[in-house]
Amino acid sequence: MQQQNDIMIRVRNVKKKYKIGQIGGGTLRGDLQSWWARKRGKEDPNTLIGTDQRLIGTTFMALNGVSFDVRKGEAVGIIGSNGAGKSTLLKLLTHVTAPTEGDIDLYGRVASMLEVGTGFHPEMTGRENVYLNGAILGMTRAEIDAKMKEIIEFSEVGDFIDTPVKRYSSGMYVKLAFSVAAHLDSEIMIMDEVLAVGDMKFQKKCLTKMRQAATRDGKTVLYVSHNMATIRDLCDRCIVLDQGRVIFDGDVDTGIAMYLATKAQSGNFVDYTSYQRESWCRCDNLRIQNVRFDADSIETLERTVPVGLQMEIHARQAAENIGLRFEIRDEVGAPLATSCLYGLHMQEGENHLRLAYDLKMLSPAQYNTYFTLFTVGDAGGHNDEDCVPGPRFGIVDTFADKRVEWNARHWGLIQLPDAQLLSNAT
User: In the predicted model, what is the mean pLDDT of residues 93-101?
Assistant: First the structure.
């Protein structure tokens, strides 16, 4: 097949099917344990707490008919909720696994970074791993030597380049891995959200490098992230995945809004008992069961009236020094405001909270929300226990004497108190 119209990636009706629970526990011992438990009709000891045992042995379509093209010089963001199929798609594009159905054509060498340490041998030094990755891309030793100084300087590894990478911190891993992927000769860069491990300064440097790779060097960039700010900053096109399908392919802002709409809850009551938490949320002691707003309609909350809500929290064990964070975000997910409650005591079993929030500082507009339970440490630090998206709500202003309609898009989403006139001398 020949390349047409400078297309670098062509994906046609790609499907990927998995058989849940049949195999793949990571070890032969784990697979045998799971098989023997199912044989006796017992709960699988290798599944996460709360997994529906009826799903064991069933098929799961991680991708279900995905099609798109990516052209030379495009920076494309791929977004979607957990389980939408993002990581599966990247593994197919990088030939980590093969599709069940469909075709994937890549017109160029691929440099990828799917997770921390991918492509690195832990016993080899950083320098040796650079040579290894370059050889995999088909580069000669002379070509790699010409890039080595630039790679080391960008990665900030410095004197540790000749140290075995098994002694690197996760941040050092990410810095060297990205530097290798960005500087070696490849036409396609595929990046998962591993940059979150690095510090903020290095993240900005990476985003700048990826932007230059697309605009100046003509490389094709595919970037997966849950950070909508970086997607907006880097990408000029957005693909939204939901349940293994492409539900949007086009403008970045429109794609972000659609993605957030799929995550947003609706109505004044939300049940979280079967909600799939984010992958990083592994604490199982505290779980938000449901949230109910007192208002009949949360689409039109009066700005000056406090908002009441009820929350049910399940605790497997009693817990002290618990905090509750209520986050308010704009329509594209940017944080706007936070209200915290500290010093909560959770008894074993069900706990019921009644809360009230004063939102009069917000301007009339639409908002997204998140609820987070966290444990407060002795030194002032905290560990998140549970995090769920709250319902989407709207603020309105119904003062009869209001002479100006608030323009949230241009004036902002935080409405400060009116100024006090101290003098008006002429």
Answer: 88
